[in-house]
Specification:
- By secondary structure, this protein is of the alpha/beta class.
- The chain is built from seven helices and eleven strands.
- The protein has helices at 10-25, 39-52, 81-90, 110-123, 160-166, 186-191, 205-213; strands at 2-6, 32-35, 63-66, 68-71, 100-101, 129-132, 154-157, 180-183, 194-199, 231-235, 252-254.
- The strands form two sheets. The chain has an eight-stranded parallel beta sheet, with helices on one face. The chain has a three-stranded antiparallel beta sheet with strand order 4-8-7.
- The structure holds 2-amino-2-deoxy-6-O-phosphono-alpha-D-glucopyranose.
- 2-amino-2-deoxy-6-O-phosphono-alpha-D-glucopyranose binds next to helix 2 and helix 5.
Length: 262
């Protein structure tokens, strides 16, 4: 079942996502969180950090597995996703470095590093909650269109569209954006016990419409979420603008807070 909620704006998406993540993080015994990068999750992390700075920290015992990592960025490069997650959430919440895991995209043997990452996730007990964004072309993590739904962590070549979209993090210079990345596979993502996808802004309209309208298809990796039984999708009105209410797939539940149904 995919529970879709359309919220008034991007900030409300950040707050609602933080509520859900907080709910999982505060479970006794510590939780395993799968975290994404990109501009949409930034709001979520900002909200979580704001809530917990100065007070008791429910994330102290959390373990983090990052979704993906560029291949070929020098150690210390600020856009390495491991560095992004440290800055955005792990350091402000005081999560020790040895509890923050990223795909080893600089491994000598990249073919071996993927399965090693999947094994590390499994050894940690699996991911309780995986936060996801979506690319304008429907990618999740760096699983570009055409990626098999049963793929595990692997090295991938980035789509031209993705490199164009992400050039903004590299001073607008597409040539500075790596051509390859190591990403959790779609099969890896689907193993998480709960998925939370957030999408804000008009660049996501087409990908969101594909998720809500289409049969699962490898052309739109995000449609793989139909193969999971616990998915929450939080949208702002711009991301939801292409949705035709008369045509959503039967497994989509439109939550009561959804402006689509109000
Ligand atoms: C990158 C990440 C994805 C993310 C996507 C969209 O490509 N690998 O995990 O979902 O960006 O991010 P944004 O929220 O910046 O649009």
């Amino acid at each position: 079942m995919i529970d879709v909620r359309v919220l008034p704006d991007a900030d409300a998406v950040g707050v609602a996502a933080a509520d859900l993540i907080d709910g999982v993080a505060t479970r006794p015994g510590g939780s395993v969180l799968g975290l994404a990068t990109g501009s949409s999750p930034d709001r979520v992390y900002g909200e979580i950090v704001r809530r917990h700075s100065g007070g008791p920290n429910p994330y102290r015992d959390a373990r983090i597995f990052i979704l993906d990592e560029y291949v070929g960025l020098a150690d210390g490069h600020p856009e390495r996703y491991a560095a992004v997650i440290r800055r955005a959430i792990a350091d402000p919440l005081g999560i020790p470095a040895d509890r923050v895991h990223a795909p080893d995209a600089e491994a000598h043997d990249l073919d071996e590093a993927g399965p090693r990452y999947d094994a590390a996730i499994e050894a940690a007990g699996g991911i309780d909650l995986q936060l996801l964004g979506v690319g304008s072309n429907g990618h999740i993590a760096f699983n570009e269109p055409g990626t098999p739904f049963d793929s595990l962590t692997h090295v991938t070549t980035l789509a031209e569209q993705t490199r164009r979209d992400n050039a903004r993090f590299f001073g607008g210079n597409i040539d500075a954006v790596p051509r390859r990345a190591m990403t959790q596979g779609i099969g890896t993502i689907l193993r998480a016990r709960q998925l939370l996808l957030i999408a804000v802004g008009s660049a996501k309209t087409e990908a969101v419409a594909a998720l809500l309208h289409r049969e699962p298809t490898e052309e739109w990796p995000v449609t793989a979420l139909h193969h999971h039984d616990s998915v929450t999708v939080l949208l702002d009105p711009a991301a939801a603008a292409g949705v035709d209410l008369d045509d959503v797939r039967p497994s989509i539940g439109l939550g009561r807070s959804s402006s689509l149904v109000e």
